[in-house]
Specification:
The complex is a heterodimer.
Chain A: H1 3-15, H2 19-42, H3 45-62, H4 72-94, H5 102-110, H6 120-129, H7 134-145, H8 150-157, H9 161-179
Helix pairs in contact in A: 1-2, 2-3, 2-4, 3-4, 4-8, 6-9, 7-9
Chain B: H1 2-6, H2 19-40, H3 52-55, H4 62-98, H5 131-137, H6 140-147, E1 150-151, E2 158-159, H7 166-173, H8 176-184
Antiparallel strand pairs in B: 1-2
The chains are: A mainly alpha, B mainly alpha.
Chain lengths: 182, 186
């Protein structure tokens, strides 16, 4: 089913109060996209799986109230982004005695991560990305890897296009500076 | 040709605000991005376990388990306070009350021997009395782990966008088994 057809089907089910059917299509249609969006934020597969579950549980909980003023995928991505940020903040809070810098910990684990198959250049790039503040990292991932338009990113992050462009500019510059060491 | 002379030659096209001021910076970003992509690519380096997406399903009961696990320490403490208070009340007034008709407003077990925690059940404890303790013991940063609970400026309670308190959410999602399990931990 293509994106537009599934969005229409979801909208129809929601309009008729068929929440379960709508939810099933949402999960099937968006689980991969949401997973990869989350994974680029939290890095570790098990964490991404947790956040993806949390995201869909929240979607299930609020699906009846979804007002269709925004597109489904924008709403889903917004929930996923917020859940990923909450997850990271909670993990930092819980583990604050174990490591000083959570992003540094993620960077160090990448090399031995069985679910990371990047070459050395990709590893360096991921380490560079992990030096960015969370929200800047998210914007960078959406623009650089997913090649999303600023308008789409703006809807998801509820940040102005101008602010996003500035954030991305700074992110690219920081990464350029980081990678010159290698 | 005379008609053309009468037409205003002023440029009718517009650009977004600050377009030209920002143009150089955006061009610089674009060039840097292109250089990064040339050197590092933008391919996804992450993988997933085999059949992860095929086998993926949403565990709708997961959140129920999560809130119970999350709230156990505080609710254990809250339930503990109630049990201690019940014992105190019983010791002060228990003998006298045993000679009178049972107090229908009492939230505590009516047996003359206060049951051990493991013998208490939901029917004999009015769980509503946990509400102030639930709200008092969980601060904003902890509650945000559940569902975006924030401090309501007017009531001072932790509520979410649906005006539910943390306690309301607990009651919606905790069943008798969950509550019995909590009390049994005392």
């Amino acid at each position: 089913m293509n994106a537009e057809a599934s969005e229409n089907k979801i909208t129809n089910f929601l309009a008729n109060g068929n929440l379960s059917e709508a939810f099933d299509i949402i999960v099937e249609q968006y689980k991969k996209r949401l997973y990869w969006h989350i994974r680029k934020i939290v890095i570790i597969h098990e964490d991404a799986d947790d956040v993806l579950q949390n995201t869909f549980i929240k979607v299930w909980r609020y699906l009846e109230k979804f007002n269709q003023n925004s597109k489904i995928y924008t709403w889903l991505f917004r929930i996923a982004t917020n859940e990923a940020i909450t997850f990271i903040n909670n993990k930092k809070k819980k583990e604050e005695d174990s490591f000083e810098n959570y992003e540094q910990y993620l960077s160090n684990t990448l090399e031995s991560d069985e679910y990371f198959e990047g070459d050395n250049a990709q590893l360096i790039l991921q380490k560079a990305i992990l030096t960015l503040p969370e929200k800047q990292r998210i914007v960078f991932n959406m623009r650089y890897f997913d090649e999303m338009k600023y308008d789409e990113i703006s809807e998801i992050t509820e940040t102005s296009v101008g602010a996003l462009k500035s954030s991305y500019h700074h992110a690219v510059k920081k990464i350029e500076k980081f990678v010159t060491q290698y | 040709m005379n008609e053309l002379k009468n037409i205003n030659k002023e440029n009718a096209f517009k650009v977004p605000e600050n377009y030209f001021d920002n143009f150089s910076k955006e061009l610089e970003t674009r060039i840097s991005e292109e250089n990064l992509k040339k050197k590092f690519g933008n391919k996804n380096p992450f993988t997933v376990p085999e059949n992860y997406f095929t086998n993926f399903s949403v565990k709708k009961n997961k959140q129920k388990g999560k809130i119970i696990r999350f709230m156990k320490p505080w609710l254990s403490a809250a339930a503990g306070i109630i049990i201690i208070f019940a014992l105190w009340q019983f010791l002060l007034t228990g003998i006298e009350n045993n000679n009178h008709a049972s107090n229908t407003d009492s939230i505590y077990p009516k047996s003359s021997n206060l049951a051990t925690a493991n013998q208490l059940n939901i029917n004999n404890i009015d769980i509503k009395y946990l509400e102030p303790e639930v709200n008092a013991y969980i601060d904003e940063s902890d509650a945000s782990e559940i569902y975006e609970y924030t401090n309501d400026d007017t009531s001072g309670e932790l509520t979410n966008s649906d005006d539910e308190t943390v306690y309301d959410y607990f009651i919606d999602y905790a069943d008798d088994n969950d509550i019995n399990e909590l009390i049994a931990e005392l």
